[in-house]
Amino acid sequence: MHQIHPPRRHSPPGGEFTTDCLSSTGDAIWANSHTSCPFAQNVLEQYELANPKGAASGADSWVFEAWSPVTNQNYTMTCLREGDAVICRGGNDAAVFFYIE
């Protein structure tokens, strides 16, 4: 029996986000060259905690801490939503891109 998975979204525009990091839940996440995939995945998880799906917060930006398993440190990340895309920046020039539903 085959499982049917929803199609992955296209990669982000521009050339900044060069690393494709798939989350454990199948979400597509992209990171820049200064960002590890484990950290990018933690950024997405923290974003989802700060903005639970279905929450009617109306916010377009969020600031939170995300832990890096590579450096064993927390970093402050600022995320901005534009349409169905979110870009988070912070730490040591880290940048993470993902789509939201």
What does this protein structure show overall?
This protein has 101 residues and is mainly β. The model is unreliable at 1-7 (pLDDT under 50). It has a 6-stranded antiparallel sheet, with helices on one face. A hairpin with a 5-residue loop joins strand 1 and strand 2 (28-31). It has one domain (19-51, 60-99). It contains 1 helix and 6 strands. The protein is globular, with a radius of gyration of 13 Å.
Features:
6 strands, 14% helix, 101 residues, mainly beta, disordered N terminus, single chain, six-stranded antiparallel beta sheet
In short:
The protein has 101 residues and is mainly β. A six-stranded antiparallel β-sheet has the order 1-2-6-5-4-3, with helices on one face. It is globular.
How would you name the oligomeric state of the polypeptide chains in this document? Answer: single chain
Instruction: Please compute the radius of gyration using only Cα atoms.
Output: 13 Å
Calculate the terminal CA-CA distance, rounded to whole Å: 28 Å
Number of domains: 1
Percent helix, as a range, is 10-25%
Biggest pleated-sheet summary: 6 strands, antiparallel
Order of helices and strands: EEHEEEE
Q: Strand content of the residues, in percent?
A: 35-45%
Shape: globular
- Annotation field: number of helices: 1
**Low-confidence blocks of residues:** 1-7
What is the arithmetic mean of pLDDT? 83
> Which secondary-structure class do the elements indicate?
mainly beta
Tell me the strand order in the biggest sheet. Answer: 1-2-6-5-4-3
Please count the beta strands (DSSP E, at least 2 residues each): 6
